[in-house]
Amino acid sequence: MRRLFAALAVALVPQAALAEPVVTSFELDNGMRGVVIEDHRAPVVTHMVWYKVGSADETPGKTGIAHYLEHLLFKGTEKFPNGRFSEIVAENGGRENAFTSRDYTGYFQNIAADRLDLMMEMEADRMRNLVIGDDDWQAERDVVGEERRTRTDNVPSAKFREQFSAALYLGHPYGTPVIGWKAEVEALTKEDALEFYARFYAPKNAILVVAGDVDPVEVEALAKKYYGKIESVDLPEHVRGVEPPHLAERRISMTDPRVAQPQFMRGYLAPSYITAKPGEAEGLVLLADILGGGSTRRMQRVLTRDADMAIYAGAYYSGLARDHGEFVVYAGPKGDTSLAAIEGAVDWMLEDLLENGVTDEELARSKKSLIADEIYSQDSQRALAREYGAALTIGMSIEDIQGWRGRVEATTAEDVMNAARKVLDRKRSVTGILKGPDAEKKEAAE
Predict the structure, then answer these.
(1) Which residue, 119, 306, 319, 342, could crosslink 47 as a Cys pair with Cβ 3.0–4.6 Å?
(2) pLDDT, tens digit, for every residue of 211-240?
(3) Which superfamily does CATH assign the domain made up of 250-445 to?
(4) Which residues of the chain form CATH 3.30.830.10?
(5) How far is CA 111 from the centre of its chain?
(6) What is the pLDDT of residues 287-313, one digit of tens each?
(7) Residue 443 annotated to the active site
């Protein structure tokens, strides 16, 4: 229902309301880039610092170090020791957190606009002045270990996705989990964290994103005052493993006694927004929506309603990455439906797509839906800041971000099909099966 209203909104909202936000940028003498997104609807601000380093930049054998360091940055500096950073944010009515991905690490605060000066002072301080106590590094490593246990090791679907991702990449570090492999996380040391910090946490490797009720000139002045005084340092070259050609389909099958709902998933290596040729990434975005973007799209309509053989079904394209993107289709069998039957139905749907293409009606509906979703996402100041930060950190430009709607609108059915034919190649895929003991017994009986 939300997608229906969203699609109608594109036609009904005045064109002035669909304009992109006012965005300005600057660069400090030490190489740090700043981006200001004006949003004057409320006297609040989102302050974010993005580092162009993530799990894909870790040294082999040290997986999880990027995420571990993210945790340690909350321990403090000489100026703001012992978790004082978080206390000050809370005392001023703000919220804060951080996140690590394959390509970047980010830190943010949501707070009243008149507290931006204080947030910059504290965030700039921990860019180069982190202090890790002798007890802190071991305690925080235990916290990360517990996070891995609760979010991955004790969750069958999460373990399955971890194995699935590892199988999808033959040589590139995108195949390693962001949180790290258990044994390697347990072996991380204080020295590992400080070495990684010294290498990558520097102005040249950072982007400041400020979204909210602010004046760009004042934001730049504050950035010069706090971030501008940090000494510039040379950065290591981003060297990552090269993914070799995929010449054979791979399959994984995982059984766990805790699995009540079996799952089928197939993933294809795809170009990212950075590596794609013109029209490819937008074609894949539209293809994912046409196949699995909602209850009226092909996979859900056929598998969950018409054939009544799946509880859920869908597809997605993950292209916001520096090196490789991923295109994934998935489904969960209903009742006595076997995983083999689900796989066969998905195969048939993909073959039908490649043979007969997409319709003009499907393409127009998906364009409206995707553009409406993108417009509504701008209602969230933090989501808006995150959209720009993530895209800029992997190498996109402000013009790339603001031109997305136009590129989607200009994408043709031929563009969608060219992208589909390039990506939906079984030799470039991994098929994954997650099942419980009951499903295994059923397959043995068949």
Answers:
(1) 119
(2) 999 999 999 999 999 999 999 888 877 778
(3) Metalloenzyme, LuxS/M16 peptidase-like (3.30.830.10)
(4) 21-226, 250-445
(5) 24
(6) 999 999 888 899 999 999 999 999 999
(7) no
